[in-house]
Design brief:
There is one protein chain. Helix 5 (about 120-135) crosses helix 6, helix 12 (about 310-320) crosses helix 19 and helix 15 (about 360-375) crosses helix 16 (about 385-395). The chain is an alpha/beta fold. It is about 35% helix and about 20% strand. The longest helix has 19 residues, at about 520-540. It is built from 19 helices and 23 strands. Strands 13-12-14-15-23-22-21-18-19 form a nine-stranded mixed beta sheet, with helices on both faces. A seven-stranded parallel beta sheet has the order 5-2-6-1-7-10-11, with helices on both faces. It has a three-stranded mixed beta sheet with strand order 16-17-20, with helices on one face.
């Protein structure tokens, strides 16, 4: 259908936040792609920040980084995991970006003589962004962040209302995700929250075409009929968005409810029959694993799982690729400092230390890495995790007392991790790190080359600090292999231990490029190594290693 006028689907949410608009949008994208359509998605965030890069993970969750270096909402991670389209800067816009652009135009004199207002100037800029993101695609799915009724979301809702008039109502579809809670005391489902949410939306001039009703059970025909009657939609357009055990089952649930058929009918599209075999295989593997493996993730934001969303999903992908279930042990790094690694990590099959910022819990991470190295437990360090692995190796293998990162100890006698040259003198925080995809060359006879199967790779980065090349010689002499370097050889991207079953750290974020249908090779290899370790432990119990 490429070349035909783009069709637009706008997804809004009501009643409460965190209902899963991002997953719903991504699942719709997967269904449309399964019908042979070229799909893209756009997340519109009402917050005034220019991007989420400077937000605390506890406030916003994960910052997802794209190839072109955009720091974006975590929903773009969902989009990339469900559709084949690579996201970029144009796939995420915020109130901050919109106002920044409009004010810059005003200062430049583009509106000379005019009064700059929310309508039409802000709404026109939102619509321009939507069209820019949609160019060249059959279907563009626009997700409006927040909840209907939030004051900051009003310009976006007005923009998508106007869009139907500008682009033609037959080319625009409104999907509203709402909540149908089950009240345990009364023993019944309640439709009133959905009714009020739709009333709020229609009061803003948007009549939803399809309702996705988030609930913990299948909605029977009586409930659907009631919702349809009071919300002015057809009964078949009331879709059960039932809770599932695995998020990758959502496209299959929506398909069973007839969502994709409803969409193509309402948008007057002719497509091929959906091919969902790959998604069905994923669901089958998740629900019927051949074995299980326990992975400890030692980090500092464990109280909010959204902080490591792509990481946890990538570990699940590793399980899918190895046809096993990954059981996660989320461990606060500070807890390791308090009670020791043996107490918390004694029963795990693999240890992963993820990225992060700040020194809180850094010694706990170093302790966890030492435990993995000495006891031959598969270890995977990502970004800060690789840097902490370098610090641990410097202290305990190279004998460099006081080794550290200058991020944590500016006067360390052995700064094995230091600020990149390109970062020196930069004071601004937003969008100033080393961001986006950079090439990396893998060394011969390395674990990294074996896993990737090719010598040149490209991975996404988000960091300011790097390995200090002054310590290349003592590291390599003691058995650390610097197996991935920038093309000019100036930056260490991957390091691995020679005499260890599986010990690898990378400066980049491989989790951002992992997919349920195409697991990243490092996660596939890590989970495979953890499985082998688990099998070994069954045969030979793990013994404690005495420290010098």
């Amino acid at each position: 259908m490429t070349g035909v006028k783009t069709k637009f689907i706008f997804v809004t949410g009501g009643v409460v936040s965190s209902l899963g608009k991002g997953l719903a949008s991504a699942s719709i994208g997967a269904l449309m792609e399964s019908r042979g359509l070229k799909v893209t998605l756009l997340k519109m965030d009402p917050y005034i920040n220019v991007d989420p890069g400077t937000m605390s993970p506890f406030q916003h969750g994960e910052v997802f980084v794209t190839d072109d270096g955009a720091e974006t909402d975590l929903d773009l991670g969902h989009y990339e995991r469900y559709v084949s389209t690579a996201m970029g800067k144009k796939n995420n816009c915020t109130t901050g970006q919109i106002y920044e652009t409009v004010i810059a135009k005003e200062r430049r004199g583009d509106y000379l003589g005019g009064t700059v207002q929310v309508i039409p100037h802000i709404t026109d800029e939102i619509k321009r962004r939507i069209l820019a993101a949609a160019e060249g695609y059959d279907i563009a799915i626009g997700e409006v962040g927040g909840t209907v009724g939030d004051i900051e979301g009003l310009p976006f809702l007005e923009a998508i209302r106007e869009f139907a008039w500008d682009w033609g109502r037959e080319n625009v579809l409104y999907v509203h995700l709402t909540l149908v809670p089950y009240i345990t005391g009364g023993g019944e489902l309640k439709t009133k929250p959905t009714q009020h949410s739709v009333k709020e939306l229609t009061g803003l001039g948007i009549q939803p075409d399809i309702l996705l009703c988030r609930t913990d059970r299948i909605l029977d025909r009586q409930i659907k009929s009631k919702i349809a009657h009071f919300c002015n939609v057809k009964e078949e357009s009331v879709i059960t968005a039932k809770d599932v055990e695995w998020i990758y089952e959502v496209p299959l649930v929506f398909h069973e409810e007839g969502l994709d058929a409803q969409i193509v009918e309402k948008l007057h599209m002719w497509t091929g029959a959906p091919n969902l075999q790959k998604w069905q295989k994923v669901a089958q593997t998740l629900n019927s694993p051949k074995s299980s493996v326990k992975i400890a993730v030692v980090g500092k934001y464990m109280s909010l799982k959204e902080s490591y969303k792509s990481l946890f999903e990538a570990l699940t992908h590793g399980g899918i690729a190895n046809e096993n279930k990954v059981e996660l042990e989320c461990i606060e790094a500070e807890k390791v400092e308090e009670v020791g690694a043996q107490e918390l990590l004694g029963q795990v099959d693999g240890i992963l230390v993820p990225g992060g910022f700040g020194d809180r819990g850094s010694e706990g991470k170093i302790e966890a890495i030492r435990y993995a190295r000495e006891r031959q437990i598969p270890f995977f360090g990502i970004c800060l995790g690789m840097q902490m692995a370098a610090v641990e190796f410097a202290r305990n293998v190279c004998g460099l007392a006081g080794a550290n990162s200058t991020e944590f100890d500016p006067i360390s006698p052995h700064p094995v991790i230091h600020l990149m040259e390109t970062q020196k003198g930069i004071d601004a925080k937003g969008g100033t790190m080393r961001l986006g995809a950079y090439p990396c060359v893998l060394q011969e006879d390395s674990l990294a080359l074996k896993l990737y199967g090719r010598k040149r790779i490209s991975e996404r980065h988000r960091h300011r600090y790097e390995f200090n090349n002054d310590y290349v010689k003592p590291f390599t002499e003691k058995g650390m292999v610097l197996s991935g370097l920038s093309p000019d050889g100036s930056l260490v991207e991957i390091m691995e231990l020679k005499d260890h079953p599986w010990f690898l750290g990378c400066q980049f974020h491989p989790e951002f490029k992992s997919r349920p249908l195409d697991c990243h090779p490092l996660f596939k290899g890590f989970i495979k190594a953890a499985l082998q370790n688990r099998q070994t432990l069954k045969e030979v119990p793990r013994i404690k290693v005495a420290r010098p």
